[in-house]
Amino acid sequence: MPSTSIEMTSLSGVWAPVMSRPLAADQARAFAPMFKALGDPVRLRLLSMIASAGGGEVCVCDLTGSFDLTGPTISHHLKVLREAGLVDSDRRGTWVYYRIIPAALALLAGLLDVTAVTTSTA
Fold first, then answer.
1. 60-99: per-residue pLDDT in tens?
2. Is the Cβ–Cβ distance between 11 and 33 less than 8 Å?
3. Spatial distance between the Cα atoms of 21 and 44, rounded to a whole number of angstroms
């Protein structure tokens, strides 16, 4: 498991949305790789394709045709998403299947949640 996922798991109960209080340095270091991974349009599209795939997972063979990129380039982008703790994968024969890690997206959504702050101050 990537160190980012371990850090995110350990932070799951001690952070608050950015609008409630500033992040500590270690919290920012834990979240930054996830945001950095999503800062690339190809990776953001890949994440969207994986998240919206029927059956909860998608074969890399079904992802590559949507891009004007080589297989190794797509694999690199998927590796970045995996190392950031946003997706997980399994090799089955010659193909790799990817699935989203819902807890990672929930952490990002919680970090950016403005409703908790606006409803408590309204």
1. 999 999 999 999 999 999 999 999 999 999 999 999 999 9
2. no
3. 27
Residue with tokens 């703790």: 85
The H or E element spanning position 100 is strand 95-100
pLDDT band at 3 (very low <50, low <70, confident <90, very high): very low
Q: Is 63 helix (H, G, I), strand (E, B) or coil?
A: helix
Going by C-alpha positions, the residue among 1, 2, 10, 3 that lies closest to residue 107 is: 10
| Rounded Cα distance, 103 and 8, in Å | 9
CA dist 113 and 96 (Å) reads 33
CA dist list (Å): 9 to 1, 3, 94, 115: 11, 10, 31, 23
